[in-house]
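Sharing a chain and its predicted structure for anyone who wants a worked example. Both blocks are below, sequence first, tokens second.
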Amino acid sequence: MELQCKVEVGAAARAKVFAFWTDGAKRGLWEDDLERLAIDGEIKAGASGVMKLRDKPEMRFTIIEALDGEIYSERYDLPFGTLIFAHGFSTEGGKSYITHGVKLEKSSITEEDLAFLNAVFADFPIAALRLKNLLEER
């Protein structure tokens, strides 16, 4: 199951967006519950890192995709399934968009799982709007 939001941005955002996905200090500007984001080594598929959110334990992750100006996604292997956070930049019909999504991978999704995913997703729309505003600052 996957939940995602998509926000229109100016085309110039493409040049800046990757740093806002991968740099802990910049990501903390739009993801307000982020306390720490650290990537071990080079930012590329297969690299690992750690994320700490307010009132949550640290979580290890693996980078799935990392293409500057296009996509950045992280995989978190949890006891009950795999959580994937995906960030993207796309152009459609002459307009540019950022996407911010979360996906839960497991063999069978329950109502409890959906409630968990909804709770994780709850602040995504406002976070995407914050990111849009940061990307469009002059």
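Comments welcome. The chain has a mean pLDDT of 95.
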